[in-house]
Amino acid sequence: MRRQRPWLLYILLLYILINKSGAISPDGEALLSFRSVIVSSDGILPLWRPEDVDPCNWRGVKCDPKTKRVIYLSLKNHKLSGPISPDLGMLAHLKVLALNNNSFYGTIPSELGNCTELQGIFLQGNYLSGPIPSEMGNLTALQNL
To answer: 107: helix, coil or strand?
Structure first.
């Protein structure tokens, strides 16, 4: 019986490595968190599946082909309703955020100031309130707000 235990350990380690490699990327986790706070939509977000290793093939999402990091999120005109998740601030390489012409409400999350590569933020046509967060001053590449 003692000789079998090392094999069980190897099998367990192999199982963990296989499952870890199939886990969704951190960018995917941020987008799934964003999806979880959406109250309603036209059906686009259920196509975002947690089983996918990366979100690069999800509708409205574009990734850098080399790094597989999310650089573009465009979900305009999809009847999305709810607050904008602060977890979008975890998309460190995001260049364009287009959520215009939906029904988002609440404030603009200050965490978007962490997306220092943002060049364009398009939020018009929503029900956002409050001031523009001062953290947006960190977005030195921002050309459109």
So the answer is: coil
Instruction: Find the DSSP H helices in the chain.
Output: 4-21, 26-36
Residues comprising the chain, all counted: 145
> What is the average pLDDT value for the chain, to the nearest integer?
88
- Extract the runs of DSSP E, i.e. beta strands, from 13-94: 61-63, 70-74, 81-82
Let me know: does 109 contact 131? Beta carbons within 8 Å.
Answer: no
Q: Strand, coil or helix: what is 56?
A: coil
pLDDT band with cut points at 50, 70 and 90 for residue 22: low
C-alpha distances out from residue 19 to 15, 65, 109, 118, Å:
6, 24, 33, 33
pLDDT given for residue 8 in this prediction: 55
* 93 closest CA partner among 59, 122, 66, 64: 64
The predicted model scores a pTM of 0.82
